[in-house]
Amino acid sequence: MATKLVYGIQDPTTVEKCSELYYTRLARLPKISVKCCPFEGYNNESLRVSSCDLTDTRHVPFGRQLISGSARSRNSVGKTFCTTGVWTFDQHVSESSSQVTENKVGVLLLNLGGPETLNDVQPFLFNLFADPDIIRLPRLFRFLQKPLAQLISVLRAPKSKEGYASIGGGSPLRKITDEQAQALKMALEAKKLHANVYVAMRYWYPFTEEAVHQIKNDRITRLVVLPLYPQYSISTSGSSIRLLQSIFKEDTYLSRLPVSIIQSWYQREGYIKSMANLIEKELKIFSRPEEVIIFFSAHGVPVTYVEDAGDPYKDEMEDCISLIMNELKSRGIDNNHTLAYQSRVGPVQWLKPYTDDVLVELGQKGVKNLLAVPISFVSEHIETLEEIDMEYRELALESGIENWGRVPALGCTSSFISDLADAVIEALPLATAISPENSTKKNTSAESNTNILRYVFALFFGSVLAFILLFFPKLASSFKNYI
Ligand SMILES: C=CC1=C(C)c2cc3[nH]c(cc4nc(cc5[nH]c(cc1n2)c(C)c5CCC(=O)O)C(CCC(=O)O)=C4C)c(C)c3C=C
Ligand SMILES: [Fe+2]
């Protein structure tokens, strides 16, 4: 019952790192002992693989592709940096089998998405508010999610449209994310990893489903999922990852695809240094750089996310800011700094302090120089271009702040993209199937009946709610905070 694990790595300098990653993972699995896998070398035309014995195969997570012992693989595999992966074969497969599956690496960038025209604004808002990770209703009231999303999106659309109109009639997110995807592909190429890079937006085009469809069409064999949010929140990376998991579980091919998900990456040195570079550069524009308050403004989340649902967002944000400030300190930059949360929506309490309140307070305290640093997102978007550059700037100047600066979003900054490429390369060997084989669930007829009942129930109560709100405008005004 002995099974061989074979793997290949192009660059001898990465051998130790890669094997350590594989073995750490394998060693955690019960009843597997991994013997040493010496590196055998490679040449330009082909890749030689090493082999070793496992005592038990039952839990080997990478056992998808089957090749025989010390094999010659295709050049495209040989080119793959640190990713030629692990193949297994067991007693069911003849040792003379020569089947070699091409390794096709995919990187899936997750982002929020934004309306491209003013006509897209209301349907975009509907998609956003229909997400149970954005409006978290108690289980019993989940059937109201869509009617509520319809109502709130219609009520909020005029204000949102004004915002998008003021930044040119739509969100720049799609264009910037596509540019980041292209830059990441090139950075990976430069590091000898050939990969397809896909963009999956949560609430607008290209939707997550489209990107996943493309990944399947391209027969990707190993996937790294990279949310474009440095810090994890239930409402952002969490929501996108949950959607992905639900799509993958329903599909036989996808449920077996080895996937590595990078949950958050704010602590990466490359990111921290890139942010520090941007801040250092903007500080120099002030006539008295040492007097400038560095004002980190993060997108908020409702307090209940952190306190009740255990969202690590606030902790990660605070940790991120202390890492950036330490980096600046190491460069001799010792400015005062503060963190506040912006963009609250709806009637509930959000993380405090609020950006607008702190700006007013600082102005009243006599602060004259302020550098705003958007910290929860790596592209320009409505909340940097409109909320910070227009609303908050005006408020700050009215409150007595005389010199205002703003750090641009990282966008395609090369040190940042290069660091994302490193994150992908490091994550790749850790890929495992998102759900175990045979977990693809088929609806039983009892479940289908429950779903139909739920739908009828939702339709009925949704219509009643819409009716009440339409004819009792005072009740509707309790949603005013969404507007
Ligand atoms: C880390 C970033 C973000 C968190 C956390 C987040 C939580 C969150 N957002 C809303 C509601 C809205 N967000 C909207 C736009 C928007 N949100 C983010 C990022 C985070 N959201 C971005 C990057 C964008 C802009 C997209 C663009 O088009 O440029 C909007 C729409 C715009 C508006 O009307 O203000 C809403 C609404 C909630 C409720 C929430 C947490 C629960
Ligand atoms: Fe948001």
UniProtKB/TrEMBL annotation:
Query: What Gene Ontology cellular-component terms does the record carry?
Result: chloroplast; mitochondrion
- Cell compartments where the protein resides: Plastid, Chloroplast
Q: In which pathway does it act?
A: Porphyrin-containing compound metabolism; protoheme biosynthesis; protoheme from protoporphyrin-IX: step 1/1
Q: Which Pfam families match?
A: Ferrochelatase (PF00762)
User: Any transmembrane segments, and where?
Assistant: 452-472
Instruction: Specify the enzyme's EC class, one word.
Output: lyase
EC number(s) on file: 4.98.1.1
This entry's Gene Ontology molecular function terms read: ferrochelatase activity
Q: Per the UniProt entry, what is one GO biological process?
A: heme biosynthetic process
Kindly report the protein's main subcellular placement as a broad class: plastid
The source's domain of life comes to Eukaryota
Instruction: Show the catalytic activity.
Output: heme b + 2 H(+) = protoporphyrin IX + Fe(2+)
- Keywords associated with the record: Chloroplast, Heme biosynthesis, Iron, Lyase, Membrane, Plastid, Porphyrin biosynthesis, Transmembrane, Transmembrane helix
HAMAP family given for it?
Answer: Ferrochelatase
Q: Which family would the database say this protein is a member of?
A: Belongs to the ferrochelatase family.
Q: What does this chain do?
A: Catalyzes the ferrous insertion into protoporphyrin IX.
Q: What is this protein called?
A: Ferrochelatase
Organism annotation: Thalictrum thalictroides
